[in-house]
Amino acid sequence: MRRAFFSVPLLLLFATGPAFSDADGGPDFHFKGPFIQGGLVTGKAPPGSDLHFDGKPLRLSREGNFVIAFGRKAQERMQMTYRLPDGTSGALPLSIMQREYPVEKIEGLPAGKVTPSEADLARIRNENAALSKARRADTDAPLFITGFDWPVTGRVSGVYGSQRILNGKPRSPHSGTDIATAQGTPILAPADGIVAWRHPDMFFTGRTVLLDHGHGLFTVYAHLDRIDVAKGARVKKGDPIGTVGASGRATAPHLHWGISWFGTALDPEIVAGPMPKQP
Questions:
Q1: Does a structural domain hold residue 174?
Q2: 143 shares a domain with 57
């Protein structure tokens, strides 16, 4: 398999976001994370507030924790509206940094994995429908507040948002990050979560695990060699959930790691920050 990338390097931002306080004449809101396409921002508002982002209601934890995120093509200008427990209401304008994405060419894939048969297409539709249903959950536990670590370390062999050309044919943009590492490498839960779904053999992603981190935030782990967790199990950050493999549409051992918020794919490299140095 041959991969090629063509892109202007992306400058990633890993910083605490703005804080809006009573001293500024606004509510006491705090944000942490980069306001950039593919980014994830956690926030805290006065408990009992009513928040909307992009016109949709946000879930708040009992302590006022919430999360918002920005897809691959998020608009440059967005806003969050609020109503506080005392009846005060208003809007917070948000400026989202725009990005350019690379083109990724992958050659040498089996023809049937690039252009599936009619029977395989029916299987793919059923698998995707089941995965999408699992991702629609909106559990109230804010497990995301532990923050996210890398589930494995290795060479980043595929990047979020890239326009993929498989065996010379354009396909959908890449929805996560690929990390090339040895077969059998343990995969560790990057944050507290609940095993929302697992599958022993998806057409594209092979052995696959989905973790629910609350408030519509999920992570997915694909091409596994072995799955070590049961559906419904509660995992803590750092717990093993499986091992790296090459199941599904893969030509070498690697982990495809994806993060999504209500089905919108986010950039794991931005969410987790720089990968720690390998031993």
A1: yes
A2: no
